[in-house]
Amino acid sequence: LDLSNCSLHSVPPGLAEATTAIILDLTENPLTTLPNGSFLGFIHLQRLAVPLTLECPGGSGAWQDMTVDRSSRLCQGQRNPCNSSVERAWPCPENSVCAPDGPGLVQCLCDNPFHGYKCLREGTFPMLLFGGILGTATVSLSLLLWGTQRRKAKTP
Fold it and tell me: Which ranges carry the EGF-like domain (predicted)?
């Protein structure tokens, strides 16, 4: 994805839709910062060229090779932070596994059959029970409001 020399002053919001990009060029743009999470979901990104004034997202630990050219910085070979021998500050909770989520970013995915907050619930989500309770409450409330409010309706 070539976004070089596009007069970008900030990361375009539509960039979040290009998570399958393998090569991204942001050089020759007046970018001042790369906000945290700009490359969230970019797990396939292998080459990123940024203006010389910016650092590679995720820092030096997120890339295998970082080289400086005349006017750009090239970040190559995105590392998997889950395979790092360095202990992470926020380890994944029990019943979950670490998965990369972009340069220097990780996400914790629940192991099957666990789900919910911190992967503490086991089994599947009770969709039938949830739908039944929600449907019953909606119908009951609708009937109650119809019965109490219909006398206020004007008849033609």
Answer: 108-119
Q: Has residue 147 been placed in a domain? A: yes
Residue 45 lies in a domain: yes
State how many domains the chain has.
2
Range of the structural domain that residue 129 is part of: 124-151
- Per-residue pLDDT, 149: 84
pLDDT band at 43 (very low <50, low <70, confident <90, very high): very high
Closest CA to 15 of 1, 30, 31: 1
89 part of a folded domain: no
Q: Mind listing the pLDDT tens digit for each residue in 70-79?
A: 889 999 999 9
Backbone angles phi, psi at 91, to 5 degrees: -70, 155
Q: Is residue 98 part of a domain?
A: no
Predicted pLDDT at 154 = 66
